[in-house]
Amino acid sequence: MTDFTHLDALQSRLSHEIERLTQAKSTKERDLRAVWVAGIEREIEAEYRFLGIEQTVTDNISDDELLAELMA
After folding, report:
1. Residue 71 has pLDDT above 90, yes or no
2. Helix (H, G, I), strand (E, B) or coil at 9
């Protein structure tokens, strides 16, 4: 049986970091948290590959577009 605990932890961490990003007060903090979010997303992609799960992405948007959506 496949163990998904690490993937679950990464997804939870991503969710929390996105929430912190949306509440960031300064540009410097937003920029730093955006880098962290991108890093966590890469970790999740790697975990999907490791587990042999095909990850489907419905929308391909740039980091700037994502940040704009989060800040709206």
Report:
1. no
2. helix
